[in-house]
Design brief:
381 residues, 15 helices
Length: 381
């Protein structure tokens, strides 16, 4: 028998979806993910809270339970990533989190493992796999059309390497230049100057590790960065630790070398709001990129660069760029690399990996939409 009333779980899921500009389908499998973690009292507590921000005292007045019990459940829900805090005008306010980006990520980001989290991971795998059944005609086409018309919520900002860019004089200024200003390093500098940058465990790799799946690119577990106001919440409630600019740059450089893509997330999943996190993940583990490569979801990014072949005659067909491109925007034709600009998300992995200076980059602010792959075209099982 289920321990929760599934109608209440559905109400909670819809309420949490309303906390973000993006949402995920409320299905029976999603409700079982909730059911694997939450007690009936915790569900009632969250529903009583509602979606508006409030002080802890105001929340305790709203829930119909003894004070000691309310405080116990409140602390448990913060530890489970269900409740987030934010300090406004010297007052700490609390809200119910979104589902994704939100509860899923925060619940696993402190790196701890227990039986409840393992059960959560198992149901999460079932949830992602359940979405594959919607990858059929005509549902696939309808999903692609719907997602293409939405505002992108993922922002790609690559890391600078200090390496000079090879310039194609026909399309860019004559002088060589280093990476333009909108790089991940400058974003880190801005937040570290305020002392508001923390490191947490990668939700995606923590989830996969609990499922016994190793990262094909051997990415580190403690690698994702939390920025701004949310870094205070992450540190205060034991999800992560504050780090310096130098430590953050080391993480970026290490994950870049291993094949990491730096995806910037914004408050409420809206790119017009402040940044809250940098996901440093790969085409294998990442819930965004990995799901695209498995034919589960489409991709919609805002990006600032594209890569192009500047000196094809130098290409020796080694295939490193093909291996590390997270979206297969690069192919080998007649043993030479060819880049599809429309598919390039501007992560610059190909640029960093090329040993022959074949690839150059160009600044261009744009949106990239990659439709849901047909099952026959997926990269990963």
């Amino acid at each position: 028998m289920p321990k929760n009333n599934y109608l209440k779980l559905a109400r909670l899921a819809f309420m949490m979806n309303g906390q973000s500009s993006s949402s995920i389908p409320v299905t029976l499998t999603l409700l079982k993910v909730f059911d694997s973690v939450l007690s009936p009292q915790e569900v009632d507590f969250l529903l009583s809270m509602g979606k508006d921000a409030a002080t802890s005292d105001a929340i305790f007045r709203k829930v119909n339970m003894p004070s000691d019990k309310a405080r116990e459940i409140f602390s448990s829900l913060i530890a489970k990533g269900m409740i987030w805090s934010n300090v406004q005008k010297e007052q700490e306010l609390f809200t119910v989190s979104p589902i994704m980006l939100g509860w899923f990520e925060v619940y696993l980001c402190n790196g701890s493992t227990n039986s409840e989290k393992k059960q959560f991971a198992r149901w999460l795998t079932r949830l992602f796999n359940s979405w594959k059944k919607y990858n059929v005609t005509p549902i696939r086409q309808l999903r692609n059309l719907s997602n293409k018309n939405k505002v992108p919520h993922n922002v790609i900002k690559p890391a600078g390497s200090g390496k000079k860019i090879i310039i194609n004089e026909a399309i860019v200024p004559e002088k060589s230049q280093v990476l333009p200003s909108k790089s991940i390093h400058e974003l880190i500098t801005r937040y570290s100057n305020e002392g508001l940058i923390a490191v947490v465990h990668c939700f995606c790799r923590q989830w996969k590790t609990m499922e016994g799946i190793e990262c094909r690119l051997n990415m580190p577990l403690e690698a994702c960065l939390v920025l701004g106001k949310f870094s205070r919440h992450a540190v205060k409630y034991g999800f992560g630790r504050f780090i310096s600019r130098e430590e953050a740059i080391t993480i970026i450089d290490e994950t870049t070398k291993k094949g990491g893509v730096h995806i910037v997330w914004h408050d409420k999943d809206r790119i017009d709001k402040e940044e809250i996190a940098i996901c440093n993940c790969c085409w294998d583990c990442c819930g965004v990129l990995g799901s695209y490569n498995r034919g589960i979801n489409s991709l919609h990014f805002k990006t600032f660069y594209y890569a192009y072949i500047a000196q094809q005659e130098k290409c020796n067909g080694c295939g490193l760029c093909v291996t590390y491109c997270p979206v297969r925007a690069i192919t080998l034709q007649d043993n030479k690399a060819v880049i599809d600009k429309k598919a390039c998300i501007g992560c610059l992995q190909c640029y960093h990996k090329c040993k022959k200076d074949v690839i150059a980059i160009q600044y261009e602010e744009r949106e990239v939409f990659l439709p849901l792959l047909k099952p026959s075209m997926k990269r990963l099982p």
